[in-house]
Amino acid sequence: MKTNAHMFWILSSFFFVVSAMYTVWSLLDSFHGYVEWVGTLALALCGVLFALIAFYLSRAHSVQGGELPEDIPTSDIDDGDTEVGFYSPWSWWPFMVGTGAGLVFLGLAIGFWIAYIGAALAFVSIVGWVYEYYRGYFGR
Questions:
Q1: How much is the CA Rg of the chain, to the nearest whole Å?
Q2: C-beta pairs of 2-11 under 8 Å, 24+ apart in sequence
Q3: What pLDDT digit, counting tens, does each position of 83-133 carry?
Q4: Hey, where are the domains in the chain?
Q5: DSSP SS3 for 91
Q6: Dihedral of CA 49/51/52/54: which sign?
Q7: What's the pTM?
């Protein structure tokens, strides 16, 4: 995490320097001496974004109480492996939930009647996904 924070600080300073260079370049390039504000602010705000991420990572690293396994060069991959849950590799319910959510968003863009169909499909799919192991071949 410390390496990531340093990398984001470097990116932040890079974008601030490029923003200043862009401002000077736009002053020298234009005939009237105007600053091109869109590019200048976009590059400066990219620097602010990377500075916020770097600050967060620096603070998170200082309060975590030790090094993470990802930061130790001698650690193995499975040292940082945590339990993330159980997911059925053969289940079609997540695909159906995604299809229902996609239809809801499509309905917001095209017509609300599609959103109603998508909401019903998403609801039935969520119920099917939750109760997948309580019925049928996998029921216990």
A1: 25
A2: 2/61, 2/71, 3/71, 4/57, 5/54, 5/57, 5/58, 5/61, 6/54, 8/50, 8/51, 8/53, 8/54, 8/57, 9/50, 9/51, 9/54, 9/58, 11/50, 11/54
A3: 777 777 788 899 999 999 999 999 999 999 999 999 999 999 999 988 888
A4: 2-73, 93-130
A5: coil
A6: positive
A7: 0.55
